[in-house]
Design brief:
The protein is α/β, with parallel strands linked by helices. It contains eleven helices and 14 strands. The chain has two domains: 3-198, 3-Layer(aba) Sandwich (Rossmann fold), CATH 3.40.50.300; 211-279, Alpha-Beta Plaits (2-Layer Sandwich), CATH 3.30.70. Keywords: ATP-binding, Nucleotide-binding, Transport.
């Protein structure tokens, strides 16, 4: 799939999401995460390529396709003048599969008063309402764009618990794509990791596979490593220096660094944070 704007191109993105799995979409600001999600959903038209769902190609703006998807936008656009129950009735009218009983369960789960005006809701409550609107029609695909942004640690923990117990429960049979900058939360729920950089997907694998495929080399000299290395260099606030390389390259890199007088302190599997810093 391709999508271009002045100064930016989402290029040649190939991505497959599996039912019953959570895929985390990671990247720096402006990397193309939201553009990818909106193209996949059909909110904005793609320039080239296709979106296929259950083997059928979906067209831009197709109503039947969007009814199969739940989407929570980063900005949580809601109608502040409505009451919670009014808003949900309005949303329900657009989805033939809306489940009133499930909606009520979610209201109780997120502790939302259906009679309260939306403008009176806290940020965490607004996130909860957006999630209810995205889930009560029981979508097969759930797209979450920075859903935990601005939530306090308790609200984030509550959200992650709900995500594990409900949204991605095996019986739901749902594929979930979640974009987030909160990497420790991603580790808690994601089955697969996608890293996008400058509009291109550079990594798509399980976290376990990434830990097996990549290596971190901690080295003693920042200046020498920075000037010589063709590998991503990660500098810590404490002055530490780490190089990121593929596992099959690590022995050769250690030998090359040692020959150049650069001491290698240790070699180990990377954390997701280090993978993000090195690849995003």
């Amino acid at each position: 799939m391709w999508k271009s704007y002045p100064g930016f191109t989402l290029r040649d993105v190939n991505l497959s999401l599996k039912r019953g799995t959570v895929t985390a979409l990671l990247g720096r600001n402006g990397a193309g995460k939201t553009t990818l999600i909106k193209c996949a959903l059909g909110v904005i038209p793609r320039d080239r390529g296709s979106v296929r769902f259950q083997g059928v190609e979906r067209e831009y703006g197709e109503v039947a396709w969007r009814r199969s998807v739940g989407y929570v936008a980063e900005s949580h656009p809601l109608y502040d003048w409505m009451r919670v129950e009014q808003f949900l009735r309005f949303i329900a009218a657009h989805y033939p599969t809306w489940d009133d009983a499930y909606c009520q369960q979610l209201l109780e789960r997120f502790r939302l008063d259906p009679h309260k005006q939306i403008r009176e809701l806290s940020h965490g409550m607004r996130v909860g309402l957006a999630l209810i609107a995205a889930l009560a029609h029981r979508p097969i695909l759930l797209l979450l764009d920075e859903p935990m942004a601005g939530l306090d640690p308790i609200a984030r923990a509550d959200f992650l618990q709900w995500l594990r117990e409900d949204a991605i429960a095996p019986e739901a049979g749902r594929a979930v794509l979640i974009s987030s900058h909160i990497l420790e939360d991603v580790v808690a729920v994601a089955d697969e990791i996608v890293i996008i950089r400058h509009g291109e997907v550079v990594v798509h694998a399980s976290l376990g596979d990434l830990e097996r495929e990549w290596r971190i080399l901690s080295v003693a000299s920042w200046t020498s490593a920075q000037q010589w290395s063709a590998f991503p260099v990660i500098r810590g606030r404490d002055g530490s220096v780490r190089l990121l390389c593929r596992r099959q390259e690590s022995e050769g890199l250690v030998a090359e660094l040692t020959a150049r007088g650069i001491a290698v302190l240790d070699v180990r599997a990377p954390t997701l944070h280090e993978l993000f810093l090195g690849l995003a």
